[in-house]
Amino acid sequence: MRALVAVLIVLSLTGCASLPTSGPVRIGPDLSSTTGEETFYYSPSSPVEGASQAEILSGFLAAGTGPQNDYAVAREFLSETIRSSWNPSQEVLIQRSSPLVNISETDTAEVEVDVLAIVDADGKYEAGIADSKEVLEFDFILENSEWRLSKAPDLTVLIKPVFDVVFSAYSIYFVDKQKRYLVPEVRWFPATAATGTRLANALLRGASSWLRPAVVSAIPSGTRLSIDAVTVENGIALVDLTARALVAARTDRSLMKAQLDATLSQLPNVTEVAISIERSKQDIPEAQGLTQVVGPWPLAVLGEAGLESISTPESEVFQPGASFFESTTVSDFSLAAQSGWLAVVSDAGVIRTRSEQPGALVEQLDSRPGISAIEFDRQEYLWSTVRTRGASIIATSTSGESFTVAADWLAGQSIRDLAISPEGSRAAVLIQGPGRTQVAVTAIVRDQSGKPLELTNPIDIVPEVANPTSLSWVDEATVAVVNSTAEFTNTLLSTVGGTTRTISSLPGTVSLVSTGTVTQLYLLTKGGELFTYRGSSWSSLRKSVRAMSLY
């Protein structure tokens, strides 16, 4: 019986939920919903008359592919006692392999799921550790001579390809500590009429623990939706908050509106957000000086003639500096567009000079050997790391003050590469430790002036990767990781707080950058050849390139 039921469950989770025969044609998870109504990705089947316990269980699990009408079909498999109280939004288990099922003679069942990842009620995606198992318990009851489930966990179970279709990634937005930039955190929800409500609730409940030290929310703690619904009328998302929101200062109300605007405007049927408090409409001005950092960003390369802008020549803020680069062995560089500083990695370590006249003024910033990464962040602090175990992370201000950024977790480990997020509140890091290289993201704690003080404990974003060699931010929520072994080289595009997909790469890849989207990728090989990503392949752009950097 155990083997037979397992086969039935496999069939139910992969084939019994039929595709829709009406509604908009949809190809995959990267396409947005065309309306704010329910989006019918799958049409699961209702229970049939005389269905066995195994068929009821498999049908119920298969119906988790249909979130439309609050999982109405899945509820048909439940007894009247739990039909309305069952909460499928509490958790999603993404399974790694076929579940093991045991139905006993006592009208109970256990389903053992090999968990690839878990999504909680707030849409937080957490990858499961290797061999992570979860046992689900079910009870059966006869109602009107038909088997139904009288006990079922508050969750759904999906295979990865189905999850990719039914669920979409959305960002909820917080504000950095200086209240200058919006900071995203990715959450996952099905595209239903309730998506706006779930996004608003997730925002009101705040940032995840790993990100919290780097951000604030202008929405007063304890604020809730006065009614648990965000409705959309003529493109306007109506958000009614509880009286707790009244304690926000005037400037914070503008930031609060900016957070809700950025979060809810991702919905395709929302063009505007209107906020009320206890049904009293609020006239809230737009936030001043708050920026959402999006591409395209300009790209510079170091070639035979010195520095040159590749992607947007009209934004050039530097001179080629051919004579300086001919006399200096440079392996990497970074540009600060506003202050005009140019930092380079040379045989002497990290030095900086003026980008408008390279070589006229030269200052030593970091003399340590084995520099692994340098980068100016959004606030133009220069970060530098080395490959030595336990070595400090150093940041330098535009005035030339260098200091250590605390990272207690780095003890006994080294930084193989580091990249600062577009808005400057997060850092992606390759951490070289005993036996493995960890691909992780950490929050950047800054003081009120923007000075970086600490990198918090990192979280894995690519749990299983062979040999990551470099990384960079593709956009505000995606990190590209070059993964290179003796047998292959590929590039992993990892959503921070989500899934990872693979695109092709080239042998000998040393670095990869994006000017703002996945369609604007540039790759540099050991041989000094620069490639750009077009369609699904790499095209050569130029040769004799030593390094490249955004600015």
TrEMBL record:
<dbReference type="InterPro" id="IPR059026">
    <property type="entry name" value="LpqB_N"/>
</dbReference>
<protein>
    <submittedName>
        <fullName>Unannotated protein</fullName>
    </submittedName>
</protein>
<dbReference type="Pfam" id="PF10646">
    <property type="entry name" value="Germane"/>
</dbReference>
<dbReference type="Pfam" id="PF25976">
    <property type="entry name" value="LpqB_N"/>
</dbReference>
<dbReference type="Pfam" id="PF10647">
    <property type="entry name" value="Gmad1"/>
</dbReference>
<feature type="domain" description="GerMN">
    <location>
        <begin position="196"/>
        <end position="286"/>
    </location>
</feature>
<dbReference type="InterPro" id="IPR019606">
    <property type="entry name" value="GerMN"/>
</dbReference>
<dbReference type="InterPro" id="IPR018910">
    <property type="entry name" value="LpqB_C"/>
</dbReference>
